[in-house]
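Deliverable D5.2: sample structural annotation.
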Amino acid sequence: MNPEQTRRPENPRSRMQILVTLNENYMPQLKVLLTSIHTSQPEESPDIWLMHSGIPDDLLASAGRLCRFCGFGFHPVLVDDTFLKDAPVSRQYPREMYYRLLAGSLLPEDLHRILYLDPDILVINPLRPLWETDMKGMLFAAAAHTGKTDLASNINQLRLGTDHDYYNSGVLLIDLDTARKEITAEEIFRYTKEHGKELLLPDQDLLNILYGQRTLALDDSIWNYDARNYNTYLLKSSGLCNMDWVMQNTSILHFCGKLKPWQAGYIHRFGILYKHYIQLTRQTLKRISSM
């Protein structure tokens, strides 16, 4: 591990710590995520930890300028190649998929808790209540995406041999102290080598198989809302979770799936909201460049 900026937060338990892991292709989406975090909770000044395998310096510098403008700390962490020398790495198993599960080993020991967010997310209400969640000794807190029935969960339980909900790995609150005691790279790499052909969504399957029993369940309608499934949430809530409810109560909108709102042809209703945040990001970046 090579932290490229070494400032440490004075009190990691009160100042939010947010982790993202991505490659350079997702840097535009990271900036939209950062804009949404700042817009939804301007009183907060979290530290942003960007774990990567070699994002160019100019792209890191651009993200750093946006963070400073928003009042965020910015900490790029370049993961050394030797750390993953025994890891199965391929197109199906990119290096970045391991980073969130191994955050305890890769981040400074004076960090005790961190909130991982996928880059295809908008934050539209404050994260503070999630950050302060009592994890009850668990490794992770995560949400399972609810459907009209429990069929998908049952299929994943059968496929993976588990007896708990199938948690989505796009939003993870991680107890780093507990992770340092219980999670090893060797266990994750060994399981991936032995069962790689069985993993459909590799990082998510690993979370559920190895650590699902050590995961605290979160309400997905608030903390990991699947932006494709508005009608499902509306139906399951007997009409409660309408658009007004989502805008007032949901904190994390997750644009799951292959189709993304920054691509042409996105059809789901929250796509227009994402485009609004793209425009806000462009305006902010323009202001920064003129300063």
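Annotation notes: The first helix runs from residue 27 to 40. The first strand starts at residue 2 and ends at 3.
The annotation will be released with the project's public dataset once the embargo ends.
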